[in-house]
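pasting for ref. prot 1 ->
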Amino acid sequence: MCIDLHTHSIYSDGSCTPAELVALAVANGLRGLALTDHDTVEGVEEILHLGAEAGLAVISGVEISTSLHERTIHILGYGVDPANAELQSWLVPLQKGRERRNAVILQKLQDLGIDITAEEVEAVSRCGQTGRPHIARLLVAKGVVDNFDAAFRHYLGRHRPAWEGRFSYSAVETIGMIHRAGGLAVLAHPGQIDPAMSALPVLVRELTLLGLDGLELHYPAHTRKMKKHLKALAAELGLLATGGSDFHGATRPAHRLAGKNLGFCPPCSILEQLTARLNGRHH
């Protein structure tokens, strides 16, 4: 049986509601699920409730973009209390940073002769956190680029004509906040940070000293070789090994939700180990 601990909903840049995510997880035969929207816990209470009704083990989550030595990394927070007032107010500057960046990106696109309005972006986003993926979808819809990846390659990615940075906390601040909200901090898709795996061991060792609890081992883009490296690193440093698809629905159709017969199936033992670590922390 499989689980999927890395998914996104309409509350950030996914296309599914929490109810649709739960229904899909049940249809795919998943035993466990986590909603890890970007910089928000807005949909977490909803999915915890729906998951319980469906007999699915759902764990709370969030994905936070952060930085370490000028390098952008994503940290997943598992088991955080979505009602934690400090966490909610701590997330606000990240959310406001997204809003400011969106406005600058749209202006840069206008300067390039590409007409996308804030109203159009809001219509695509519907609710929750709006970001570059929503703008990318409009670039595809308007025929400016052929596909989602091309939008980032030609316009929205780092050092591209419409690129704009945004506020982020440091890795140590992020890990500290996740811990104060009762959660565990896990490095998302480490193979994406450093495909050659040359700089990663040093980076992960440093993050472990800062309090990192785990590594996302099972990820669709991770090769067998990457997984072997990551597994050894996690074992050496006493880190949890987690896994998830990074499912976004229609926003990024290449990332399908995990499932027994779908070629990507993180094992249930991951959720058991994660839950045991969380329970140990809470006692």
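and prot 2 ->
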Amino acid sequence: MIFGKYIAHRGLHGGNIPENSLTAFKAAADNGLAIELDVRLTKDCKLVVFHDKDLMRMCGVEGNVRDYTYNQLGAFTLKGSDEKIPLLTDVLKCVGGRVPLLIEIKNGEPLISTEKRLNALLKKYVGDYAVQSFDPLSMLWFRIFAPNVTRGQLISQNKKNFDLEYILRLICANPLVWRLISKPDFISADLRSASQSQKQQAQEIGADYIIWTVRTKQQLKAANYFTDTVIFEDIAILEEVR
């Protein structure tokens, strides 16, 4: 694996540093930590780094990322800080190849268009990176058109609500999906539903097994039982992972 032991989830954030911000990414890179981040398309088809579909939690405004152009998004800040929603190109410049990047293509993004734009940008990037998604068709695109890009299948069987999202995640967590569609280089598994059986199934197809998202020392201990690579969040446990 290109990532080493620990990956900073949405950058190294906490306190006054918001997630998926340039400051969070700089802090992670300065500490030598690989970085996980999320990408979405704006209304004018710019790739920005933002986790949620809608803007309310992080920016306190109505609407989805796809409802706004990048210039319009510039009017909003992250969690009341001075940080703006960054372009992926700005994040790539900020990190500058110092640490590996794990880039998640969010569900619901325009299939093919997102992958093509992302791959075009990454071709110009000098540094280690991998892509991942819950959507096996997204990883299928990379498997066919960019087979040299390291790709991962995100899986979770954790149940919040019995809804369409939960059903789709159950389907994507099925090993048949890994074998027939995405054929990933690694499985990125939710700690809440991780198991030795899952890990063994990943190993059977030659895929590494990594765990997300660790937020406490107790969770870190549990994650270390399954994997050599952990996606963690919270500056408070930084000393535990260094």
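The mean pLDDT is 94.
The radius of gyration is 17 Å.
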